[in-house]
Specification:
- Two copies of one chain form a homodimer.
- By secondary structure, chain A is of the alpha/beta class.
- Chain A has one domain: TIM Barrel (Alpha-Beta Barrel), CATH 3.20.20.
- Helix content of chain A is 36%, strand content 15%.
- The first copy, chain A, has eleven helices and ten strands.
- The first copy, chain A, has an eight-stranded parallel beta barrel with strand order 1-2-3-4-5-6-7-10, surrounded by five helices. A two-stranded antiparallel sheet of chain A has the order 8-9.
- Chains A and B meet through helix 5 of A and helix 5 of B.
- Chains A, B: InterPro entries: IolE/XylAMocC-like (IPR050312), Xyl_isomerase-like_sf (IPR036237), Xyl_isomerase-like_TIM-brl (IPR013022).
- Chains A, B: It comes from Microbispora corallina.
- Chains A, B: This is 3-dehydroshikimate dehydratase.
- Chains A, B: It holds the Pfam family AP_endonuc_2.
């Protein structure tokens, strides 16, 4: 591992203090500014006074985990999460790739490794079911539990916390058979709290009649709190239905208060998949994100 | 009220026995063959040996409830449901229209009046939130409970059973803040069982990790069982994501077995909102529906 980073960036960058202390725990999930390289995203965080970043494996791979870790650490940023492991519902549980993801999260010092557990076997994310479709939802869920039995101790040995992310039920078939916070907690509770936590993502859970009770139940199982809005009408590609806070229908008040009351003290990530956001100037996106974070999300 | 129906149809039509006893409880929801008038749908049921029909208020209005009731009764059909009342989350609870829907259900002798409770105040179904958007989900849900307090006894006095339909969470903002069977049952349990039941619609509930337990809990609260499949990828208009049984990702086995075990003895409706189905020849749609009902849905 070299001390010199790609592009000849200096190894230490002073991080200016955020202008508003309410931004102290704001984290930019890298996919929100998807057009930026890792280096651009790190620079963008520094420039905008953001102290934490949620990384994606695809972007980390541009440098490799060790150099990426250095890049982020030298900029004084925390790594609020690494996205993502998972897709555990196939025949083989996808274990090798998930072990690699755990190793990367360890190298990066990420607060957690987010797991998107996968949909029904044979369904490609966003695609049509192929000939290998299994409609056995119980089996798919059992496979997640079995894979977690292997991955949780592996993560624990490396000081990595897995974060089970329940996804909105509209993604149940193709992305995650884990659909509610209650279900995620039932699964997490079988493992030590430092090994397996959950993600509370407003976009995925806002509709759930049981969500406030489940956030309270979660307590220190909450490994990540992510905020983005739910747009209506849904766009043609429902994966891109996330919006900037304030552009959709979510009331961030009760959810944020519940997460705070549950004792969560980590960063708050903004993760937005949205074609318009991706087409915009990333610096403007970050500026809007900061502004909306203050106006729409109550203090943590 | 006249004995002569529009179009001069004879007042009594002999209903041939279904060829397969497994079709005895199959009901055609009228919206599946949306291009048909009420009269055409009734004739179609008779022609195809289907003994039950789920009616829609828009179609019933073509004749008025009394004449429609006669048309259906003379064909020897049961009315498995009337769709739909609801949209209770506005300022006024939409009570007048719902009382009218109850009256229509009474006139038709419908087994239940399906209630789609409505989304967040200010969000038009399928549309964008207007200036009147309220993000107060708890308030919207409270309004449903309050409206039901008025409508349940009104329905009870007229021998009509209201059927609360939890809708898939992707419709929470614009169509129904009632998103799970557990939530529907919590609401229903505050009223006599003959006044308020629930709809179990496979499309809406298949993903729910708690669905089998909630169906068991429901017992004789189940007022309607509806089957259609969940398509992936979702079409651009998610309202039209329903498919013919076998075309999507739902395993009808466990759900149907649970509904049977819960003691449900009513009809099984096929309700499909789908642009391709609506564009097809309705007679072919009904023929396919009968075939798939036998091959994909276990005997009730």
């Amino acid at each position: 591992m070299s001390d010199t980073l790609p592009g000849g960036r200096p190894a230490a960058v002073e991080t200016p203090a955020p202008a508003d202390p309410r931004l102290d725990r704001l984290s930019l999930n890298q996919w929100t500014t998807r057009g930026w390289t890792l280096e651009q995203a790190v620079d963008g965080c520094v420039r905008h006074g953001i102290r934490s970043i949620g990384l994606w494996r695809e972007k980390v791979a541009e440098h490799g985990p060790a150099a990426a870790a250095r890049l982020v650490a030298d900029a004084g940023l925390r790594v609020s999460s690494l996205c993502r492991g998972g897709f555990l519902t196939g025949d083989d549980g996808n274990l090798d790739d998930n072990r690699a993801a755990v190793d990367e999260a360890a190298a990066l010092g990420a607060a957690c490794l987010v797991l998107v557990v996968g949909g029904l076997p044979g369904v490609v994310p966003g695609g049509s079911p192929g000939g290998g479709l299994s409609r056995d939802l119980a089996l798919a869920r059992e496979r997640v539990a079995r894979a977690l039995d292997v991955l949780a101790p592996y993560a624990g040995e490396r000081g990595v916390r897995l974060a089970l992310e329940p996804l909105h039920p509209m993604y149940c078939a193709d992305r995650a058979v884990l659909s509610t916070l209650a279900q995620a907690l039932d699964l997490a509770d079988r493992h030590p709290v430092e090994q397996v936590g959950v993600v509370v993502d407003t976009f995925h859970v806002w509709w759930d009649p049981d969500v406030l009770a489940q956030i309270a139940r979660a307590g220190d199982r909450i490994a990540s709190y992510q905020v983005s809005d739910f747009l209506v009408p849904l766009p043609a590609d429902v994966l891109l239905a996330r919006g900037m806070m304030g552009d959709g229908v979510i009331d961030f008040g009760p959810l944020t208060a519940a997460v705070r009351a549950a004792g969560y003290r980590g960063d708050v990530e903004v993760e937005i998949f949205n074609a318009d956001v991706w087409a915009a100037d990333p610096d403007e996106v970050v500026a809007t994100m900061k502004r909306r974070f203050v106006t729409e999300v109550p203090p943590m």
